[in-house]
Amino acid sequence: MITGLSINSTMLGNFILVTASFAVLIVAIRLFAWDKITGIFEERAAKISSDIDAAEEKLAEASSLVDQREQELAQGRIEGQKIVQDAVDRAKLEKKRMLEQAKVEIEALKKKADLEIEAEKREAQEKLHVQVADLAVDLASKIILEDLDQQAHSELINRYLDRLGEE
């Protein structure tokens, strides 16, 4: 039994020695390294907190920038629509102006054509009067069987034209 007791006492002695060493180690750590260890943890916690705050700020800035870009994009769309509408309005005005100009030109061409027709009509009537007068003189000279002199010829033409004008 002595051997059993000596093993137990050796184990007990080892246990006491290990426990005492551990207690000394804890006290030494507490005295010399605890502030440094907790300082490292506190610094790490502060850095993590700072990084989180910085990330939140960046996120807020990014969100703000996204909102700003969306507003600029919306404004760009509005301006684009305005430019297109202005172009459409200008095209409509140009079309209207061109149509009005074409109407004016058409009216001028119609008036010119009417004047030309009227002039040709007068010319044709004058030629017809001359031809009718010549025929009338020829007919009259055949009827009378004599040649008319120039004065009688003119009088005959004038009388005949006067009668044609009355009819």
TrEMBL record:
<dbReference type="Pfam" id="PF00430">
    <property type="entry name" value="ATP-synt_B"/>
</dbReference>
<comment type="function">
    <text>F(1)F(0) ATP synthase produces ATP from ADP in the presence of a proton or sodium gradient. F-type ATPases consist of two structural domains, F(1) containing the extramembraneous catalytic core and F(0) containing the membrane proton channel, linked together by a central stalk and a peripheral stalk. During catalysis, ATP synthesis in the catalytic domain of F(1) is coupled via a rotary mechanism of the central stalk subunits to proton translocation.</text>
</comment>
<comment type="function">
    <text>Component of the F(0) channel, it forms part of the peripheral stalk, linking F(1) to F(0).</text>
</comment>
<dbReference type="GO" id="GO:0005886">
    <property type="term" value="C:plasma membrane"/>
</dbReference>
<keyword id="KW-0175">Coiled coil</keyword>
<feature type="transmembrane region" description="Helical">
    <location>
        <begin position="12"/>
        <end position="33"/>
    </location>
</feature>
<comment type="similarity">
    <text>Belongs to the ATPase B chain family.</text>
</comment>
<dbReference type="InterPro" id="IPR005864">
    <property type="entry name" value="ATP_synth_F0_bsu_bac"/>
</dbReference>
<dbReference type="GO" id="GO:0012505">
    <property type="term" value="C:endomembrane system"/>
</dbReference>
<protein>
    <recommendedName>
        <fullName>ATP synthase subunit b</fullName>
    </recommendedName>
</protein>
<dbReference type="InterPro" id="IPR028987">
    <property type="entry name" value="ATP_synth_B-like_membr_sf"/>
</dbReference>
<keyword id="KW-0066">ATP synthesis</keyword>
<keyword id="KW-0813">Transport</keyword>
<dbReference type="GO" id="GO:0046961">
    <property type="term" value="F:proton-transporting ATPase activity, rotational mechanism"/>
</dbReference>
<dbReference type="InterPro" id="IPR050059">
    <property type="entry name" value="ATP_synthase_B_chain"/>
</dbReference>
<keyword id="KW-0375">Hydrogen ion transport</keyword>
<keyword id="KW-0138">CF(0)</keyword>
<keyword id="KW-0472">Membrane</keyword>
<dbReference type="GO" id="GO:0045259">
    <property type="term" value="C:proton-transporting ATP synthase complex"/>
</dbReference>
<keyword id="KW-0406">Ion transport</keyword>
<comment type="subunit">
    <text>F-type ATPases have 2 components, F(1) - the catalytic core - and F(0) - the membrane proton channel. F(1) has five subunits: alpha(3), beta(3), gamma(1), delta(1), epsilon(1). F(0) has three main subunits: a(1), b(2) and c(10-14). The alpha and beta chains form an alternating ring which encloses part of the gamma chain. F(1) is attached to F(0) by a central stalk formed by the gamma and epsilon chains, while a peripheral stalk is formed by the delta and b chains.</text>
</comment>
<keyword id="KW-1133">Transmembrane helix</keyword>
<feature type="coiled-coil region">
    <location>
        <begin position="45"/>
        <end position="123"/>
    </location>
</feature>
<keyword id="KW-1003">Cell membrane</keyword>
<dbReference type="InterPro" id="IPR002146">
    <property type="entry name" value="ATP_synth_b/b'su_bac/chlpt"/>
</dbReference>
<dbReference type="GO" id="GO:0046933">
    <property type="term" value="F:proton-transporting ATP synthase activity, rotational mechanism"/>
</dbReference>
<keyword id="KW-0812">Transmembrane</keyword>
